User: Fold this.
Amino acid sequence: MQIDMMMLISLAISILMLLLSAIFIMYCNCRKKIKTSTYDDTQSLGGRRRPRLPLGSLGIFPFIGETIQFISSAYSHKPETFINKRRLMYGNVFKSHLFGSPTIVSTDAEVSKIILQSDGKIFVPSYPKSLMELMGKSSILLINGALQKRIHGLIGAFFKSSNLKSQVTTEMQNYVTQSMANWTEHSPLYIQDEAKTIAFQVLVKALISLDPGDEMELLKKHFQEFIAGLMSLPFTFPGTQLYRSLQAKKKMVKLIHGIIETKRKLNINQRINVAKDVADVLLNDTSEELTDDLIAENMIDLMIPGEDSVPVLITLAIKYLSDCPAALNQLTEENLKLKMLKEKLGQPLSWNDYLSLPFTQTVITETLRIGNIIIGVMRKAMKDVEIKGHCIPKGWCVLAYFRAVHLDDKLYDFPYQFNPWRWQEKDTNNCSFTPFGGGQRLCPGLDLARLEASIFLHHFVTQFRWEAEDDSIINFPTVRMKKRMPVWVKRRRYP
Assistant:
């Protein structure tokens, strides 16, 4: 037994030495490759000085680079610390090595705008391997060119339609009313959980017309297993999180395939061309590229905001309002005034009513700025690119880091202070405010996200007073509340 143990230890040491040797050789080759791909600003081309690679560090370890420092900072209460430290040393655009790739990090709003607005021939999406594998090659988040523009355009136009906004308003009001009717004053209520349940149901209805029930619960169960692997280790053997997430996606694709097949038969038999949901929009398109597999997989990808972005927006808004009584009072007065007016007129609230509440919209805007639900986007350069004198070599990744821009004290006074009044005189249509991305990949559901948050806040503040328990924000790998935002509610009494 002891001999076997010694042999195992010896074998393990030998394997470790081989791995370290291989890593060292690859590291040297990697450094050599990176060095030869940079530009020497002392050389010239046609009498013009070549742009130079931004200053920065690639770290001392191959493949790892500065990833550990980045993730360590991301888990802290100020995840921008890693970025800000290097920005002070190297400038607003600097080089690093993150998630296995040499990377140019941009905290310059104008540089990030150019990156976001560039077409797929210059920059393509680039994400950690686990996310890329889970999304699949057909995902709207990863595809490029004419197909991406076509799908994005079809979905964007449908999401902006007044018919869908009316449907979402009706569905959101119904789910919010049903949920709030069961809230009790005798135990804490977890806002993050409530918002997730409601937003997921609303979005799935808009995507595939699935109502709450056993099938919805099964879909949600598989989806939660799927989303757990988005930022997991890139190993796909049985027992790993990524493997479980891939299996969950297969089950969801099969379920959605059944829904698509039923829709196709119904549309043929009844000659229905009016789209009730996103699946209908894509099915009605005559392009041969829009296969059932592509539609099913993209329906899953589009469910992510219902589980993540919209619920977090709602939760953070209530968090910040709980900590800012002046903002809460003004928002409550605005919504109570609208509620009483509509009751006096005997009219239901429309989607336009919710989106026309000025102070409510500034609260949502400020929540998006300070909350940074999406901290940034990653792209990969398909050729050597020069932006504002900075060289981005072919094959390098670019991280457009929104959070650093949104919290820049040169752009926003007291940036860490929740101040919705700042938006009463500030335009949201500028390159220093990009909570939904930008360019041809601008999130198509941005209006729906604002609408759903507005509806939830309206019903919450007009029906309840509350006291929030202490809770903290976790910023990585996704933004969420550590304790799920527990609050104690008390119903408002009206004469």
Q: What stands out?
A: Confidence is low (pLDDT under 50) at residues 1-47. The longest strand covers residues 93-98. The domain at 30-40+48-136+374-406 is CATH 3.30.43.20 (Uridine Diphospho-n-acetylenolpyruvylglucosamine Reductase; domain 2).
